[in-house]
Design brief:
By secondary structure, this protein is of the alpha+beta class. It has 11 helices and 19 strands. It has 2 domains: 7-318, no CATH class; 348-438, Roll (SH3 type barrels). A hairpin with a 5-residue loop joins strand 16 (393-401) and strand 17.
């Protein structure tokens, strides 16, 4: 059985990862920053009674989606959230301390997080309930002194978490409505400190349908509009999460997104800072003092990765964050083939009707033409050489159609040092439309 995620699933998971960590840590990424004194803004499901007593968040989120199921339809739910992990600095005697400095490096106490995920299904479209149980745990990591002997340690502690997922199915005319509820069923907490430790943080659900399709709640077809209007959401919203044209995956997110969301190709990695613009935030990180960067590195391992990535960013990578310039007045490229009716392919008239340097082919809802950036996925006729390019970013140079009506897209690989030379003398790599994934967002 193949357990590798499909391209649509991988795309949905990339967006879900951004949801999982959105707001995890805010610029300037230091524990003593006022912005980081109140954390965990999105998708927090508190323990029982926490919201009523004012010490935490509501215990559940729920979403209703509309389905057009086939005869053998089944649904798979992937529940994801963060478990809070308290990192405490202890001296050599095991006593908690605010900060420990040794060898020019600082260690401080801080709340980290551990990713939790549970896959449920595939489930038939009937009512069901599944339990979640995440164990408590304690880990220790020695802090080395200048002489190599332990100078203290980091203690990481996690509380036990319990939850449940309810699936309810009901007809609505020709459609089927599924209700998905994720609830924290853990023990009540005594205070805010305990409540957040017992919360499901950044909680969301990825739903995959097999033998069926989800209906967009943002742009439903006319005959589904009334049924969509009857769908009710609580603290989340479901959107189609696959590429354009794929309606098999929904992301139930605590952050409202549009259908078919995607991570910008120009983004080098997560920045966590509540939808801040990557370029602006990267430039701000670059202006931090050495001490501020050291404080951020001491705060969180993920913050350290951000600092290191920004410090090591090349001018080309920084320029890419500026965005993509496109001519809004450019005429759309003609689709191939544009050979006049009644003209045979060998007729000289056919040669003048096609222009590979400006012609285009539709891939999903994107018009692919000269200049379009794509990701390569060799499959249909791939040989060993083609497979070396799997996942690489390329730029389209020409679009052709052969005498059998098959389209061929000529590309040059972006990070190939000889790309300009290949383009100059026409040595392109050729792929079928189904072997490329458009990265630019022009739509028909």
């Amino acid at each position: 059985m193949n357990t590798e995620p499909t391209r649509a699933q991988a795309r949905a998971r990339a967006v879900a990862d951004a949801v999982l960590y959105e707001g995890y840590l805010l610029y300037p990424y230091r524990s003593n920053s006022p912005k980081n004194q109140s954390r965990w803004q999105f998708g927090v499901l508190g323990p029982a009674g926490a919201a009523a007593t004012g010490i935490g968040e509501d215990a559940e989120l729920s979403a209703q989606c509309l389905l057009d199921p086939g005869e053998h339809a089944s649904i798979t739910l992937t529940v994801r959230f963060l478990q809070l992990q308290r990192r405490t600095v202890e001296d050599i005697g095991g006593a908690p301390v605010t900060e420990l400095v040794t060898g020019g490096r600082s260690w401080i106490s801080w709340d980290e997080a551990v990713e939790c995920e549970q896959r449920i299904g595939p489930l038939r479209l009937t009512d069901s309930t599944e339990r979640l149980s995440i164990p408590a745990g304690t880990d220790h990591e020695a802090i080395p002194g200048t002489d190599g002997a332990p100078a203290g340690r980091l203690a990481r502690r996690r509380e036990h978490l319990d939850g449940e997922v309810h699936l309810t199915v009901e007809p609505d005319g020709r459609w089927t409505r599924v209700s998905i509820t994720l609830r924290n069923t853990g023990a009540p907490a005594a205070d805010q400190h305990e409540a957040i430790a017992r919360s499901l943080i950044g909680a969301h659900v990825i739903a995959d349908i097999d033998d069926g399709r989800f209906v967009s709640l943002l742009e439903p077809p006319p005959d589904a509009a009334a049924a969509v209007a009857r769908c009710v959401q609580h603290r989340c919203f479901p959107v189609l999460a696959g590429p354009s044209g794929d309606d098999s995956i929904v992301l139930i997110s605590p952050i409202i997104l549009y259908d078919h969301p995607e991570i910008a190709e120009q983004s080098e990695g997560p920045l966590f800072d509540s939808t801040e613009i990557d370029e602006i935030l990267t430039l701000r990180v670059m202006t931090m003092t050495d001490q501020e960067k050291a404080d951020a590195r001491a705060t969180d391992q993920r913050a350290a990765q951000i600092i290191d990535r920004c410090d090591g960013m090349t001018p080309e990578a920084l320029q890419q964050l500026h965005g993509v310039l496109r001519d809004p007045h450019a005429e759309p490229a003609a689709l191939i083939p544009e050979v006049p009716d009644g003209v045979d392919w060998w007729d000289p008239v056919a040669d003048t009707a096609v222009r590979p340097d400006v012609d285009a082919v539709m891939v999903g809802a994107v018009r692919v033409r000269n200049g379009t950036r794509v990701r390569l996925h060799p499959s249909r006729r791939a040989d060993a050489h083609d497979l070396f390019y799997d996942g690489r970013i390329a730029r389209v140079v020409t679009v052709h159609s052969d005498v059998d009506g098959q389209a061929h897209v000529g590309v040059v690989v972006e990070d190939d040092p000889a790309a300009d030379l290949h383009e100059w003398y026409g040595r392109y790599l050729y792929f079928a439309p189904e072997e490329i994934e458009p990265l630019d967002s022009q739509r028909e």
